[in-house]
Design a protein that fits this description.
single chain; about 325 residues; Rossmann fold; 3 domains
């Protein structure tokens, strides 16, 4: 059962509700300020007034009510009541429910415009909380990675306290050094919606860099598990909005291995390191610069060309001059 609860911003004005009794007191005082005097010349007028007595009493009563309401509404405006939680049943259809899914996988650490994609995703969620939602709306948060996690066991109601809880949770989201498991993430989303027990359709906002390997198989088909999860979400009347982050064209190259060719590494003894570089993109990477860094300083650099979906080994000879 939903309860309609209010909080008062200026609760100090609450005692002023007693001012609403002033019009009533004035009315009662005015009734006692005159006394009846019999006057023959007024008998004719009194008989005429009796016909209009009911109308006059009604007008006086309405005037008293209006004056009292003016005082009450003025004080109520000064109190500034705010709806905290819950919603009226007749207004339930206008409420919204949004579930935010954040891709926190390693690729979201890519910086674009001086900020990582993960930071951009969290900022986008904060903007939606501030501008797109209203008191009484419902929100949820799922962090995706190798092992996706729901940050709330049940939906959070948008209110001053509810927003603060969600904001604090967003501040704790960190990059996960794993690949995004979109299959497990969407399955968790479907289960969470089914267990939320809400009649309001959920609007699911997925913030991700849309890595091809996360969504499609090697032959370009959608994973069966992803299709099943999307079907479950659709059966709940919910819809998904994918927010693609990052620049339109990114060099999708990764160092998949780094090996030392020498079994023994000592001071003043030549050795060599081999880096395996993989191009996971669909375009040829021309002029790709590969660097060897030791203790945060670049020691060597080589430029290579890498075809799509191929890897190349780059060797770097090096001699250590001091113990480290």
């Amino acid at each position: 059962m939903n309860l309609l609860a209010f909080s008062l911003i200026n609760a100090g004005f609450l005692p002023y509700f007693g001012l609403a009794s002033i019009p009533v007191i004035i009315y009662l005082i005015n009734r006692q300020r005159y006394r009846r005097v019999r006057w023959a010349a007024m008998e004719f007028l009194l008989r005429a007034m009796k016909k209009n007595r009911k109308r006059l009493r009604l007008e006086n009563l309405l005037l008293l009510i209006v004056r009292t309401l003016i005082v009450l509404l003025f004080i109520l405006g000064m109190l500034r009541p705010v709806l905290d939680t819950g919603a009226l049943p007749i207004a339930a259809g206008s409420a919204r429910a949004e579930l935010y899914v954040v891709d926190a996988s390693y690729s979201m650490g890519l910086e674009d415009g001086g900020r990582s994609l993960l930071d951009q995703a969290l900022d986008a969620i904060r903007r939606r909380l501030d501008k797109s939602l209203s008191p009484g709306d419902q929100v949820g948060l799922v962090v995706g990675g190798g092992f996706p996690e729901s940050m709330f066991r049940e939906p959070q109601t948008v209110s001053e306290q509810g927003i603060r809880v969600v904001q604090d949770t967003l501040d704790r989201v960190e990059l996960i050094y794993e690949q995004m498991d979109i299959n497990a993430t969407l399955s968790l989303v479907a289960s969470w919606i089914e267990q939320s027990g809400h009649d309001i359709p959920w609007e699911i906002h997925v913030f991700t860099d849309v890595q091809r390997r996360d969504w499609l198989t090697e032959d370009g088909a959608v994973e069966i598990g992803i299709r099943d999860a999307l079907t479950r979400i659709d059966q709940q009347g919910s819809k998904i909005v994918v927010h693609a982050l990052g620049p339109p064209r990114v060099r999708n190259a990764t160092v998949t291995a780094l090996d030392a060719l020498s079994t023994l590494i000592a001071i003043d003894m030549p050795t060599s390191f081999q880096a395996t570089v993989l191009n996971s993109g669909r375009e040829t990477l021309a002029g790709l610069e590969v660097e060897l860094s030791i203790d945060g300083e670049v020691q060597a650099s080589k430029t290579i060309n890498l075809e799509p979906n191929t890897s190349q080994i780059v060797a770097f000879p090096y001699v250590f001059r001091e113990v480290g």
